[in-house]
From TrEMBL:
One Pfam family from the record: Tautomerase
EC number annotated for this UniProt entry: 5.3.2.-
Species for this entry: Paraburkholderia metrosideri
Domain 4-oxalocrotonate tautomerase-like: 2-67
Family, per entry: Belongs to the 4-oxalocrotonate tautomerase family.
Region called Disordered, residue ranges: 1-20
Taxonomic lineage of the native organism: Bacteria, Pseudomonadati, Pseudomonadota, Betaproteobacteria, Burkholderiales
One GO MF term attached to the UniProt entry: isomerase activity
Stated name of the protein: Tautomerase
Amino acid sequence: MPIVTIQVTREGSKPGNDSVTADEKAKLIEGVSQLLLDVLNKPLDATFVVIQEVEKENWGWGGLPVDAYRKQRALKPD
């Protein structure tokens, strides 16, 4: 019985969205479940997927809050 947890920042994938949409969540659940079936032969009805949305201010990266990290990264030349 696999249990998969997906954590994402609470922000939209498109302008006007402020979180992951119900349709996007459904596609994540379907895709992860299918992957476990294809790779590990785990039945769909035995796979649990939990999606957790985390406020951006609660997500850090590179020693900084995610927004500050993204700004810093955008300023760096490739």
